[in-house]
Structures are given as structure tokens and as C-alpha cells.
Amino acid sequence: xxxxxxxxxxxxxxxxxxxxxxxxxxxxxxxxxxxxxxxxxxxxxxxxxxxxxxxxxxxxxxxxxxxxxxxxxxxxxxxxxxxxxxxxxxxxxxxxx
Length: 97
Prior knowledge:
The protein is of the alpha+beta class. It has helices spanning about 10-20, 25-35, 60-75, 85-95, and strands spanning about 1-10, 40-45, 45-55, 75-80.
């Protein structure tokens, strides 16, 4: 299932990681484990925020994929199912049946 993992990173914890030169390595490692389809970074409500789209094969993967954001970046995360254009078209077509 395609999902969006939204990670709102803790400012103080990520400032410290940037100062110590570990932020880039932590983010790279977390993203390699996820193998995302797309990743976007922005600021939301004054916090560093990542929007990560990927295929979640099994919900048992969630702890392994989420923990690096909690532990290394003090993140608040949410994971929600999402659709692309093709998924939406397929779903809407099925409504008419």
C-alpha cells in the first residue's frame, strides 16, 4: 500500500545533529531503509518537515521505519494511506460498477 510518512522533526534535536555532523547520515540511513518513491522537505509550522511517499508492504515494518525518526530526530510522525492519479481513477471507476 502506498503511504505518506510525515515526519515533523524536533528543532533542538536536529540542530544538535547538524552541529555534530550526524543529521545527513541519520536522514540518509532512514531513507535507505524506506526506499521512498518520493521525498520532499519543507518547513511546516516553523519545524523541519519531511513528506516521504513509499510502499508499505506490511504494517509490521512500521516500527523499523519509524524509530530512526523518533530516536535520531525527535520527530512526531504520522503514516496515512495515499493514492496517485492511477489509484484514484481505478477507485472512481469501481464506484460506477
